[in-house]
Specification:
Layout: H1 3-20, H2 39-51, H3 57-67, H4 78-87, H5 89-100, E1 112-123, E2 139-143, E3 148-160, E4 170-177, H6 182-190, E5 197-199, H7 207-217, E6 220-222, H8 236-263, H9 274-290
Parallel strand pairs: 1-5, 5-6
Antiparallel strand pairs: 1-3, 2-3, 3-4
Helix pairs in contact: 1-2, 2-3, 2-9, 3-4, 4-9, 5-9
Length: about 290
């Protein structure tokens, strides 16, 4: 697919979604309720720029201005373009959800899901104690997988498990401050979920919570077996069980790696506002749904 064809495809998809759903999230109660540079153009430009491996707003803006200025004659200056991206943060979230459910599925009863979290790093360990960007949703925490402290948020992603495939069909996703425990975040979000099965890692082990979800919501939670107090190693059966569960969960870990490689979603060091960070995250989720 040529770049031109890709841009047209992205723009047409955005327009279709905007006219049916997204426009409600971008309504303006002002005299400028219908700007010359449309929301559809702004969204399409951002997604197209990401698809061309331009990973920050300024790089995307400069790329479009240099190569596609004739396509977007009403393209504003960079500060206004950046403000528009931030203004459309809620719209990017809705678009990502819509695109990840291309089949229009509404009945999720009995499906298998994989849930995990991905750190989004706004400031690395050296700046984690002094960073102030997007302070209302970001804070400092420790990332065990990277062995470092960081300042930022966590993206919690629950995808629908597919046989021998990445879980790119999203059941739900949300963002929390980095310090929020995965189990705490799951308890808050899953209390209204019903009739599904979820495979989780050790961070989500809580026997009482699992029983309550099964009893009241018919949600079956599967987590690994943890060592009991005083126990030095698991017995052979539990080790095999954990190994099998790990293989079931491997696709969501592979999905996160693929997402990072394709969109650099984990590196948000140039983001300065909460709205900009939400746009940064969910525009990338929307993009991978288009791929």
């Amino acid at each position: 697919m040529t770049k031109t064809t890709q841009l047209i495809r992205i723009y047409c998809t955005v327009c279709e979604e905007y006219y049916t759903t997204l426009s409600a999230s971008a309504q303006r109660l002002s005299n400028n309720f219908c700007p010359k540079f449309t929301d559809e153009e702004c969204i399409a430009i951002y997604l197209f720029g990401l698809a061309q491996q331009k990973f920050d707003v300024k790089a995307i803006y400069n790329y479009i201005k240099e190569d596609y200025a004739d396509w977007f004659p009403s393209l504003p200056n960079y500060p206004n373009f950046n403000r528009r991206i931030c203004y459309l943060s809620d719209t990017f979230g809705i678009l990502a959800e819509r695109l990840h459910r291309k089949d229009g599925r509404t009945n999720f009863s009995g499906i298998l899901c994989l849930l995990d979290s991905l750190p989004i790093i706004v400031a690395n360990s050296k700046r984690s104690g002094s960073a102030k960007a997007a302070r209302d949703i970001c804070d400092k925490s420790y990332c065990a997988s990277k062995g470092m402290y960081y300042y930022g948020v966590k993206l919690h992603y629950m995808g629908i498990a597919e046989h021998r495939a990445l879980p790119k069909d999203m059941f739900m996703s949300w963002v929390t401050p980095a310090s929020v425990n995965d189990l705490t975040a799951a308890k808050e979000q899953l209390q209204n979920v019903r009739d599904i099965k979820i495979f989780l890692d050790k961070a989500y082990c809580d026997a009482k919570w699992k029983e309550e979800l099964l009893q009241y919501n018919n949600v079956f939670i599967t987590t690994p077996v943890k060592l009991k107090k005083g126990q030095k190693e698991l017995d052979p059966y539990d080790r095999r069980y954990n190994k099998a569960l790990s293989s079931i969960r491997q696709p969501i870990e592979a999905f996160f790696k693929w997402l990072i490689d394709k969109t650099r979603i984990q590196s948000a060091n140039k983001v300065r506002s909460s709205a900009g960070l939400i746009s940064f995250i969910f525009a990338r989720l929307a993009l991978v749904a288009l791929c």
